[in-house]
Amino acid sequence: MQNILITGGSGLIGKRITALLEAKGKTVAWLSRSQQSQKSFLWDVEKGKIDPEALEWADAVIHLAGAGVADKKWTDERKKLILESRTKSTQLLHQAIEQATMKPDTFISASAIGYYGFDTGTNLMEESSPAGHDFLADVVIQWEAEVKKIESLHLRTVMLRIGIVLDKEGGALGEMLKPPVAAPLGKGDQWMSWIHIEDLANMFVFALEKTTLQGIFNAVSPNPATNYRLTHEAARAKGKPFIGIGVPGFVLNLILGEMSQMVTGGNRVSSQKIQKAGFDFEFPILIPALKDIFNG
């Protein structure tokens, strides 16, 4: 029986991964600031504290922890939290793994397609494509650098650069369909590299179980869509009115500030590397993915 330790386990993705792993007979525990109904070990990233038993217990770690990027307006304080919740949590895990006498053999970390920059136009971004030069790209660069330090401890390390996660319970779809009438953002021609939450959770399990897998992989569906199309199809799948006139960029900037660049820009990202490694998508096409989410 394999013991899997998950950070950020109580989030949407973490809960889904937990359910999949437990269905496969694996024992799952969460690293948490408080005791959970789920088996858990305590840690406190701000205080730099972690239960040393956690890493002695774990055969593998799935690292999902990090403050939500789109949850609140980007004040200087919020930006600091977005960065440090990722870098400091990874540093704490590195320290605990280094000190453990029985170390996990696998470390799988979330990352983000924000690495490529806010707006890469129509270019197809691959894992080897250059990093962007904005706030989110800088966050991902620093985050991945900390994960690479864990790799140097001779653990098999996988990083999944996650795109826009489609799920009924929240995330991007919840925000897009919150207004009474759905509408594209900005011009609407910006690319959105999306992934169904089920495929994302399955990809983490795939990365765990395929012991030859190592390195960085884009966690996006094979068929990105424009903001216009994604919004239109999501509204249709939910039975919500759609208006084809985009919310102007200056309005989004007034409401969201710097964060507006994240929604008016876009990325067209390739999933070819993970597919070549043997991963099969259950929902590679947008309309069936949305139908499953809203009617499944």
TrEMBL record:
DUF1731 domain sequence ranges: 247-293
Alphabetical list of InterPro entries matching this protein: DUF1731 (IPR013549), Epimerase_deHydtase (IPR001509), NAD(P)-bd_dom_sf (IPR036291), SDR39U1 (IPR010099)
Recorded superkingdom: Bacteria
Domain NAD-dependent epimerase/dehydratase: 4-127, 184-218
PANTHER family: EPIMERASE FAMILY PROTEIN SDR39U1, SUGAR NUCLEOTIDE EPIMERASE RELATED
Family: Belongs to the NAD(P)-dependent epimerase/dehydratase family. SDR39U1 subfamily.
Protein name, UniProt field: TIGR01777 family oxidoreductase
